[in-house]
Amino acid sequence: MSVAVDVAIVGGGVVGASLAWGMRSLGARLALVDAGDLRAASQGTFGLVWVQGKGLGSPAYVDWTLRSARTWRTLAGELREHAGVDVALEQPGGLHACLSAHEMEARAAHLDALFAQAGVARYDVAMLTRGQLAQRLPQLGPDVAGGSFSPLDGHCNPLRLVSGLHEGLRRAGVRRLRRRVSAIEPSAGRFRLHAGDAAVDAARVVIAAGRATPGLAASLGLDVPLVASTGEVMVLERMRRFLPFPLETIRQTDEGSVLVGDSHEPRDDAALDCAVLGAIARRAQRILPVLAGVRVVRAWAATRVLTPDGFPLYAQSPSHPGAFVAVCHSGVTLAAVHAHALAPAILDGALPPSLAPFGPSRLADVRAAA
Ligand SMILES: Cc1cc2nc3c(=O)[nH]c(=O)nc-3n(C[C@H](O)[C@H](O)[C@H](O)COP(=O)(O)OP(=O)(O)OC[C@H]3O[C@@H](n4cnc5c(N)ncnc54)[C@H](O)[C@@H]3O)c2cc1C
Fold this sequence. Notes:
This protein is α+β, with helices and mostly antiparallel strands. The protein folds into three domains: about 1-80 and about 160-225 and about 310-370, FAD/NAD(P)-binding domain; about 95-150, no CATH class; about 225-305, D-Amino Acid Oxidase, Chain A, domain 2 (2-Layer Sandwich). The protein is about 30% helix and about 25% strand. The chain has nine helices and 17 strands. It has helices at about 15-20, 60-85, 100-115, 130-135, 160-170, 215-220, 275-285, 335-350, 360-370; strands at about 1-10, 30-35, 50, 95-100, 125-130, 145-150, 155, 175, 185, 190-195, 200-205, 230-235, 250, 260, 295-305, 315, 325. Strand 16 (about 315) and strand 17 form a beta hairpin. The chain is globular. The mean pLDDT is about 95. Flavin-adenine dinucleotide binds near residues 13 and 181. Flavin-adenine dinucleotide binds near residues 12, 16, 34 and 216.
C-alpha cells in the first residue's frame, strides 16, 4: 500500500492525536501512522489538567500550560460535537496536599520562586491551612498540615480523550494506519515513511512517537534527548463521589473510581514495584483516611516522555525543513494548545518565536551543565 498526503504524523498517543485534531480539516490529506503500543504513556497517564506549580525554570511553560488549561473547555466541546465523546473534563480547582510544616514551607518556597521569575504573572493559587482546607474537604486526615489550592486545576478521562480524538479524526476522513514506522527517508523535499507493507509519501512529517521519537528524529537531523522516568498508578474500587476536586496524587473519576499515584522513579521500564505502590498507598491514606478500607482493583506503571529539563521539545529540522518533532510530559494538560496553537504553526511551516523557548538549543545548555 502506498499513500501520498500533505502531512504524516507518526504516533497516535495523546500528543500525535491532539496535533492531528488541529489539522483534521485536511481530511484524507493527513495520515496518522500509529503502532498502537498499549504501554504508551498515554495509556498509563493519570489524567490531570494541571497548572499550579509548573514552570520553575521556564516562564514560557507557565504561559503555555495556563493557556492550555484555559482553553481546554473548547477542546472538550469540539470532541463532544465532532466525535460524540464526553471526556469528563472537570476544572473545579485542585489541591497539592502537604503532610508536615516542612512540606508546607517547601511548597510555599516553590511557588514564590515560580512567581519571582521574570515575565511570570502571578495566577490564582494560595497556600491554605489545614482548617481552611477542611472546610472544602472534611475527609482530610489529621496528618494534613495544609496545602496549595488553585481554581485553575482539573482533570479528565485521558483514555476517552485519546479514543475521542481518534474517533473524531475518523469522522473527519483522516487516514489512520495501524503500522510501526521503521524509517523516514527524505527525498526531493518530501518524506517517505516506511511502515511494514505500507509507504507514506508526505510533504511534511511530524514525529510524535513518545519514547520512540529520538530514534526516528535522528535520521532527520533532530536530536531529542529523553530521560528515564516511570510512574505507578493504582485504581481503587468505585466509591460514591466524595472528592469535590482532584488532588495532585489522588483523583476520583466521573464514574467514582479513585486513582492514586503517581511516582517518579528514574527507570524506563514498566514493571510494578510493590514497595513503591505501598508508599503511594500509605501517603494517600494519610491524606484521606477514608481510603484505608477501599480495595485496589488494578495498578500499572508507565514510562514518561520526559526531556532532561522536563519541558516540551518542539522543533523543525534545520537540515530537513518540513520535518518536526513534538515531545512532552503533560501531554494531557497541553492537548488544547497542541491542537489549537502548535498544529496550525506546523501547518504554516514555521514555529513562531513564542515557541522558541521549547526548542532544542536550551537542552544543549542542560547537557553541557550535566
Ligand atoms: C504515570 C504517568 C502519569 C501521568 N500523568 C499525567 C497527568 O496527570 N497529566 C498530564 O498532562 N500528563 C500526564 N502524564 C504525561 C502524559 O501522559 C504524556 O505526556 C503523554 O501521554 C505523552 O504522549 P505521547 O503521545 O507523546 O506519547 P505516547 O503516549 O508514548 O504515544 C506514542 C505513540 O506513538 C506510537 N509509536 C511509537 N513508535 C512508533 C513508530 N515507530 N511508528 C508508529 N507509531 C509509533 C506508540 O504506539 C504510541 O501510540 C503522565 C505520564 C505518566 C507515565
